[in-house]
Write a structure and sequence with these properties.
Belongs to the MPDU1 (TC 2.A.43.3) family. The chain is mainly alpha-helical and 282 residues long. It has 13 helices and no strands.
Length: 282
Amino acid sequence: MYDKRAIALLLVTLCVCQIYALPVQVDNELSFDSNYRWPSLFSTPMVKLLGETCYESLFEELNMDAPCFKLLISKGLGIGIVVGGAIVKIPQIITILKHRSAQGLSLTSFLLETCAYQIVMVYNMRLHNPFSTYGEVLFMTLQNILICVLIVWYTSKHKHLSGVTCLGFFGTFMILILVPSWCMALLYAAQIPIGLASKVPQIRANYLNQSTGQLSVFAILNYFAGTTARAFTTWTELDDPIMLGGNLLASILNGILVLQLILYWKKQPSSSNHDVVWTKAD
């Protein structure tokens, strides 16, 4: 009973953190241009999102010039990715709690992925990049931390290690906030292979088990769609070839996971490979 209440409390805390982390900007000076043909409820956020030049070109002059139209698509995808990132791993969490099992999930994959997410999040925060270009990473980091805690909780005999896992991630975040800028840049470059490597243990575990275990179909499909869309928004809004290359490679690896979901659909791990995930993949 205590276990259920503790897990439920973690899930509620995660959801509350995600709600309060949403970017809400309060503008005390509500001044609107009376020359805009569209109501201020629409024109004001669109001007802030696209800038006056592109807003006037697209919605006032109805001129669909390529650069502004590409920016509109990029901003729309960016917002969609952020919203999707807030819920993308919830089905995976529910699946673990429902089955009270983390079978088929690679702890190494999630640990590496979470560390990579933290680096990306802090890197963008310190550069003051638009939230629409990285916001989903914040939510996915919080959800990943909970998944790591649940994996440790259900696979380790020492339950206190789940708390140690949380403290480890918090310590990592504080270190990233305090390191010098040059070191942060190096860490960002290093997180790309770390993030890509985080997919390899899971792909290998799926192949060895000929099954995807408790992997969430919704989560994997959203990973693939999100990284593909994020590659487009990075190409459109940021002049950062390293970030673009990382997103493209991540999309390819997520595509492999999608292919494995199709190949191993509804297959259960064979009894001979039941412990492969924890003895070899990790």
